[in-house]
Amino acid sequence: MPESSSKQEYLVGVDLGGTKILAGVFTSSMKCIGKVKTSTKPLRGPEAVIDRIARCVEDAVDECDLKLEQVRGIGLGAPGAVDSENGKVIFAPNLPDWRDVPLKKQLEKELKVPVFLENDGNICTLGVHSVELEGKPKHMIGVFVGTGIGAGFILDGKLYSGFNKTAAEVGHMVLEVGGPKCGCGNRGCFEALAGRQAIFRKIQTAVKEGQKTVLTESLGPDLTDMRSGDLRKALRRGDKLVERVIEEAAEYIGIGVANLVNLLSPQVVVLGGGVIDALEDEMMAIIVETAHDYALQGTDTDLEIVPSKLGDNAGIYGGAVLARRETK
Amino acid sequence: MPESSSKQEYLVGVDLGGTKILAGVFTSSMKCIGKVKTSTKPLRGPEAVIDRIARCVEDAVDECDLKLEQVRGIGLGAPGAVDSENGKVIFAPNLPDWRDVPLKKQLEKELKVPVFLENDGNICTLGVHSVELEGKPKHMIGVFVGTGIGAGFILDGKLYSGFNKTAAEVGHMVLEVGGPKCGCGNRGCFEALAGRQAIFRKIQTAVKEGQKTVLTESLGPDLTDMRSGDLRKALRRGDKLVERVIEEAAEYIGIGVANLVNLLSPQVVVLGGGVIDALEDEMMAIIVETAHDYALQGTDTDLEIVPSKLGDNAGIYGGAVLARRETK
After folding, report:
1. Do the Cβ atoms of B165 and A267 come within 8 Å?
2. Do B265 and A167 touch (CB under 8 A)?
3. B23-40 pLDDT, tens per residue?
4. If we measure between CA atoms, which residue out of B70, B60, B81, B94 comes closest to residue B7?
5. Which residues of chain A neighbour B166 with C-beta distances below 8 Å?
6. Cα A157 to Cα A179: distance, rounded to the nearest angstrom
7. Edge-to-edge strand order for the sheet containing B88-91?
């Protein structure tokens, strides 16, 4: 059936972040045949960002020598609280002025392709579970450490979202009552202790207090434009300050994972996100050891704690999986 | 059918604790028609405790002028890690020498009635969900604050147990890295901050440091044999030390609840257990306020946080519900 196979057989996954938009084009057997990245420019406001998403999708499809008519559906992961049923972004801390944005409707108007929305932690978890783990584990948790810390829970084989569809907000699980201030207004949240922002802030504070790091050589005394990759380079040069901060963050991530293990008894915990991608070699062993230390006896039997191989692409894979599922 | 209605129409729920055993006899419509309490005497070892459970069940059935032949099934909640499928107590921190105890098999041998086992937090949650909330909420969490802190999760309408069947070990969720030592060997666990033992220890330490409390009048300087009820009486007499410790514990419980709300987005959180039963008036308002403070925006919309009306009977109700479900 040459006609039907050339028509609507492709899927697009989109990862909308506070910094960049990534769109990937997939065959229905989840092979990624092309992707395009663009900056989000969140300060330009929701309308402008939606235009940029649409353009990013068009560019990715064009890059693969395809047309939008050949795309069956688009799955998009957005940061923050997402109303999947109604296709709205309720609010997104890293996207200013995003409140009740009807993202699905507006994108469908621009692209004339069905669009499906999910929270970004959920969509990354869906991607890792379906593609990387081939849907095998019945109970699996994805934890993604980037600017903040997102997550998704596969419980009894399905993405779990709960009563308000907001489940898996692990970034705001309190790990240290009275600890450092978090963007959410509270103190001691997981992401205020171990997210990229928390790691950067600790290093900046230490430098202000007179501690030495090789990072100032390339980034200047204020450490502006620091990236996870800079930390990896500093570690390889034996930087003691960065080493201590990264070890501490890895321990907090291990404790956060142990809390999830004690609560949800997963078979697999997969770690991903920019911080893990950049610092996997330095962090994973500490995370795994700490998690087992804090997991109650019996809860971590045969538990696997592993880094995702999909890296930055977990979101677009998950988007494609969502689009495939919803257009079946 | 008079014969069939007189035969095997009753259910027994048993709550096995580190201090006491409670057995209740129920009609198939979950009306409690009698109950008997006995001490556990855990130091006598598993065999002796199992005999005591059997006798407690026999006494409860006899108290209702019934015979064991009229009991369709017995549901039992045990503290610790329980292998429901194989009817074993894997280990129970508050019951010395309980390791891989085939409780189901031994009780069935003694009583000649089918026995079904569950973790005590799960069974209390099942009781509250089925009987008190009439099975309505699809996503519900039960948190039981006693000597330790137990819990159970109803997710998507079903008791959730996870890969190792150990889910809902909320007592060992870390809330304060580096905090007070817990029985599990780690530091800063929820139950080391807000369980009855933690509350008692804080008061005892304060008294040793020279702080005043009316509790020493009746219990002596070492505060031996302190009970939750003593704290309630002290509060009613305006005891400042007890007030501060109880407020602090209620705040920790609120933060623990908020973590569960952020992670699982339940519709209802029900609080129970000896500490809540005794101090509901003093603690609930603080728990509810703190939980909403720490819940991320959007996660606590229409969320109810309420004390259980079943009190100490949640376990026997849950046991009867389990027995009914398993013998259907």
Report:
1. no
2. yes
3. 999 999 999 999 999 999
4. B70
5. 262, 265, 296, 298-299
6. 35
7. B81-83, B88-91, B99-101
